[in-house]
Amino acid sequence: MSYNNILVAKENSIATITINRPTKLNALNTETIQELHKAFQELEQNPETRVVILTGSGEKAFVAGADIAEFADFSVEEGVQLAAQGQDILFNFVENLKTPVIAAVNGFALGGGLELAMACHFRIASDNAKMGLPEVSLGVIPGYGGTQRLPQLIGKGRAMEMIMTAGMVTSDDAYRMGLVNHVVPQAELMDFCKGIAQKIMRNSPLAISSAIKSINSNYKDGENGFETEIKSFGKCFATEDFKEGTTAFLEKRKAVFTGE
Q1: Are 53 and 43 in contact (CB under 8 A)?
Q2: Which residues have C-beta within 8 Å of that of residue 80, sequence separation ≥ 6?
Q3: For 214-259, what is each residue's pLDDT tens digit?
């Protein structure tokens, strides 16, 4: 499928989605959000896709925020709809994908850009990256899950400070806070992410999907993460991946998982 604002490449079961609006510093508009949803949906449905890496084009920005011109004149009702639809079709959608998604943060990740990175399963940053949620400086608050996911990742107090000051943090600060898992030179970012993807792909895709579901359930209202873990653990026993993994262990060989 062809897109106007993103690029999709596939290599050795690793898919890379690149947000490609360099003149707008890869800012998110409605069309880009829709395209990202379709791309993630298509990749999720393809069993050959084992890991997705999400990044931005160029060397300046992952995503420098939402496209403010698109919603500057919105009413209250339109603002509510904007946040609800965006969370539904992209941010929550990415968070709950069965396929692991790595954010390769290659520059500015601000506002909706940081919110998108936080919706991914984990984040790797280049050494020039800067992150923040500056929405209060525009008279609004983060609307794509920022007030929820940032405290989960770095703690309530630090999240309060970042959001209320509208300030940016460096990649090193983000690493110390636990906002990103690793910081690497920009020239090495994609290779580093692919290296982690290769490690992920050695393991059972079914088990990984179940682990994602179990981890996420702890942060959802009305769900008990321990109960989800117990049920998901039990279901693994009925899979071919479990049989292969345990047999390979006992036979002292590397497992070959099929995702069945």
Answers
A1: no
A2: none
A3: 999 998 888 899 999 999 999 999 999 999 899 999 999 998 898 8
Residues known to be catalytic: 115, 135
Name the H helices within the chain: 30-44, 76-86, 92-95, 112-119, 146-154, 156-165, 171-177, 189-201, 205-217, 225-236, 240-250
Report the predicted TM-score, pTM, of the whole model to 2 decimal places: 0.94
Q: Running DSSP on this structure, what letter comes out for residue 88? A: I
Give the span between the Cα atoms of 104 and 191, in whole angstroms: 10
CA distance linking residue 6 with residue 125, whole number of Å: 20
Whose tokens are 């790595």? That residue is: 102
Nearest partner of 134 among 84, 104, 169, 107, judged by Cα: 169
Alpha-carbon Rg of the chain, whole angstroms?
A: 19
- Asked if 197 and 172 touch (Cβ cutoff 8 Å), the reply is no
- DSSP one-letter string for 35-64: HHHHHHHHHHT-TT--EEEEEESTTTEEE-
- Per residue in 104-140, pLDDT tens? 999 999 999 999 999 999 999 999 999 999 999 999 9
Tokens 């690493």 found at: 175
Taking alpha carbons only, the member of 185, 180, 147, 186 closest to residue 163 is 147
Residue 164: count of CB within 10 angstroms of its CB: 10
d(CA 89, CA 238): 32
* Helix, coil or strand: residue 4: coil
Closest CA to 30 of 78, 74, 66, 55: 66
Distance CA 100, CA 50 (A): 7
Dihedral sign of CA atoms 185, 178, 6, 53 in order: positive
